[in-house]
Structure formats: C-alpha cells, structure tokens
Amino acid sequence: MTMKKLLGLESFPFTEEEIVQRIRDAQRNHLKEVVFSTPNRKITITLGDINPAGMMREYWDYYAK
C-alpha cells in the first residue's frame, strides 16, 4: 500500500515525494494540519505530536512493498 493510498490521495496529482515534503514542511513550521486540495476535493491531514523523522527518513517506502 502506498502512502498516497494510505492517506486517501490516490486521485490527487501529487507524487509520494511531494506528499512527504509537505508533511515535513508542516512539521518544521509546527503546523497541526496539512491540506491537499484540487478543484473537486479537499483532504486535511491532522499531524500528531509524535516526531516521525525516523519513519519519514528510514521507512518512507515501507507501504510501497
């Protein structure tokens, strides 16, 4: 299962790398949510207080297997 599918973003024109980058940027800026939107849909992902830096760096392709 890919990260796009896990987050419900299959129909969005973002790549896996763009999704991870937007989540990382939100964490660096201490934001609580990331919004992905197109003219037809909008998905808001709420970020928790757990630091997933290791997961984002070491296991980024875990769900693609």
Descriptive key words:
single chain; about 60 residues; two-stranded antiparallel ribbon
Number of strands: 2
Rg (C-alpha, Å): 12 Å
Percent range for helical residues?
A: 25-40%
Tally of DSSP helical segments: 3
Residue-averaged pLDDT, rounded?
80
Helix/strand order: HHEEH
The profile of the biggest β sheet is: 2 strands, antiparallel
Structural class: alpha+beta
First-residue to last-residue Cα separation: 7 Å
Overall number of domains: 1
Give the spatial strand order of the biggest sheet.
1-2
Low-confidence stretches: none
Strand percentage lies at 15-25%
In words, what does this structure look like?
It is a single chain. The protein has helices spanning 3-7, 16-28, 53-58; strands at 33-37, 42-46. With 65 residues, it is α+β, with helices and mostly antiparallel strands. The chain has one domain (3-64). β1 and β2 form a beta hairpin. The longest helix is centred in the middle third of the chain and has 13 residues, at 16-28. It is globular and about 25 Å long. The mean pLDDT is 80.
What is the fold's blueprint, element by element?
Blueprint lengths: L2 H5 L8 H13 L4 E5 L4 E5 L6 H6 L7
Antiparallel strand pairs: 1-2
Task: Write a brief caption for the model.
With 65 residues, this protein is α+β, with helices and mostly antiparallel strands. It has helices spanning 3-7, 16-28, 53-58, and strands at 33-37, 42-46. Helix content is 37%, strand content 15%.
